[in-house]
Specification:
The chain has about 200 residues and is mainly alpha-helical. It is built from 10 helices and 2 strands; from the N terminus they run ββαααααααααα.
Amino acid sequence: MTEVLLLAKKNSPAIWQVSFQNLEKAAYYYLKRYSSSSENLKRILLKRVFRAQKFQQVDWDVTNNWIEEIIEKLKTIGIIDDKEFADRKAVIFNNQGNSKLMIRKKLENKGVEKKLIDESIKNLEKKIVDPDLTAAIRFVERRKMGPYRHPNNRSEYRDKDLRSMARAGFAYSVAKQLLEAESIKDLHFMESQIDIHNNN
């Protein structure tokens, strides 16, 4: 096992040394702060190694094996669970106002496998009657669109708001319904009806 730290010069900052022990510590440190998929954690550790190789030689075959071993260990003891991660993130992303399309993209960016993404979307649809309508209401609220705009310039922003919602992955019918709602109370009523269905 290589030394944990190397000192470049006396009184100089310690240089992070690539080793199994340090990679494992880095993995645990990251997971204490953030949830992660196995692929995302692998990317994080590799970035750490890429930065470190400026100051030391790296045996990439050995290092990649170390990273794979660490991730498999974390999966075995249940600290990393890609299915649980995808399911939980899908709900969080939906609550933040992300359409199912955007949820897919975000999970892909986190390195989640397509099969698990498909399952997480299906599970989301079981928990929430209409995930996209729920997310769209929150999207409109956060962006202050439709009934949140001042009555005098609401029509002026209609097409712009429709395009924004389309880019966010929402269907035209959903966007039109919300942007043409007469009042904020109407949106709150829609949301309350969804909550009633979800709780039944």
